[in-house]
Amino acid sequence: MPPKRKTFGQVLREKRLAKGFSLRKFAELIDVSPTYLSLVEQDKVERPPTVERLRRMAELLEEDVDDFIALAGRVSEDLPEIIRSERLMPDLLRGAKGLSKKQLEEVLEQIRRMKGKEGD
Amino acid sequence: MAKRVAMPKRDTFLTDKRIEEEAALLLAEWAQKHGEVNDPPVPIDEIIELHLGLTYEIDDLRSRFHHDDVLGAIWFDDATIRVDQSLDPHVHPRMLGRYRFTLAHETGHWRMHRDRFRRDDTQSEMFDGEGKPSFICRSSDRPPEEIQADKFAGAVLMPRAMVYRVWESWRGDAGPVCVLDLEIPDFDTDPKRNQTIAMERFCKPLADRFGVSAQAMCIRLETLELLVRERPNLLFG
Q1: Quick one: which of B102, B81, B78 has its CA closest to B157?
Q2: How open is the CA angle A27-A28-A32, to the nearest 5 degrees?
Q3: Most CB atoms within 10 A, among A4, A103, B4, B179?
Q4: Section B67-71 average pLDDT
């Protein structure tokens, strides 16, 4: 059986302790109650923290903001607008679904090259 | 650093001196890794999670255990401390002292009682899959281990030397204060109760500095004989 993927709550607790923040101190820094933070760490909240709060958490823990937001099950606030901005954008995402991480990196590289040419 | 003296097994009696030593040892261990705590408040949240490595959670323990006076609980097998959400100092700032005291109290169970505790598997199924807590700590339930854990909490949050030092700088001298010299209200028909109210009022500024309740501060000051109910005998003074 493959190892069970860690939940957002488990990862958050591990990273927080690794940075030397107590539960109460970290809650204070992100302006939530320690009870709420504890429930997040126990994966007992119905809705994950807001994107703004996840961003602050990631900054304090020196983690990649997008990774952190994705792990928590949130979508970065700029994405809905990007998806709506161009009719083909949903097709692009649907088409990319199921590609491996390596393939996605190749697509991203291609996009960067295209954008680079645009800027020339 | 002081060496730990083995805790007696299968014996519910622990002397106050032994409890004080255990609290001092824990602070010495913290100091060795993180630096000495010279001023209050003692960082009990950090001691639990960063030094002892215990899992710490805040939860609705009152619903879970069906008692409306549950403050905290400890699971030795899971190395987990849980505190009831009614003590959350962010939501209820006035509960800060009780919150910190409960954390220190559960730490006392961890340090003094876990070697003597034997798991009772027959009752595990009663507790929603997370196992039976080793101790459920309630304000109305005071067996000997609970009293020992309270004494430990007092000693760890208000270390003897730190209290004497802060007392002296606060009062201007190291001498004790007699309750009879305080302004005693007449709220209650019981004079002792009125004395207690006067003592708690007096202790409040010090309690705030140590991050404990005025009640806990009073008990500690009485234990350290800085606050006395009767005038010292000055026969030979």
Answers
A1: B102
A2: 55
A3: B179
A4: 89
Contact call for residues A74 and A54 (beta carbons, < 8 A): yes
Does the model's ipTM exceed the 0.85 cut?
no
Cβ neighbours of residue B50 closer than 8 Å, sequence gap 6 or more: A17, A20, A22, B34
Integer Cα distance of B233 and B237 in angstroms = 8
Between chain A and chain B, the number of residue pairs with CB atoms below 8 A apart is: 43
CA A71 distance to own-chain centroid: 5
The DSSP code sequence of B45-68 is: HHIIIIIS--EEEEE-HHHHHT-T
CB of A24 closer than 8 Å to CB of A34? yes
Q: Kindly tell me if the per-residue pLDDT of B80 is higher than 50.
A: yes
Among A105-114, B8-17, B188-197, B209-218, name the most confident range: B209-218
Chain A residues contacting B via beta carbons under 8 Å: 17, 20, 22-25, 27-28, 32-35, 38-39, 41-42
Per the CB < 8 A criterion, the answer to whether A36 and A77 are in contact is no
Domains in chain B, CATH or no CATH each: 17-24+37-157 (1.10.10.2910), 161-228 (no CATH)
Crossing angle (nearest 10°) for helices B160-171 and B191-210: 100
Look up the pTM and report it.
0.82
Predicted local confidence at residue B6, as pLDDT = 57
Task: Give B69-116 as a DSSP string.
Answer: TEEEEEETTTTEEEEEGGG-TTT-GGGHHHHHHHHHHHHHHHHHTGGG
Q: Which of chain B's residues have a Cβ under 8 Å away from the Cβ of A33?
A: 88, 90-91
Query: A22–B43: do the CB atoms touch at under 8 Å?
Result: yes
Residue B54 phi, psi dihedral angles, 5° rounding: -80, 150
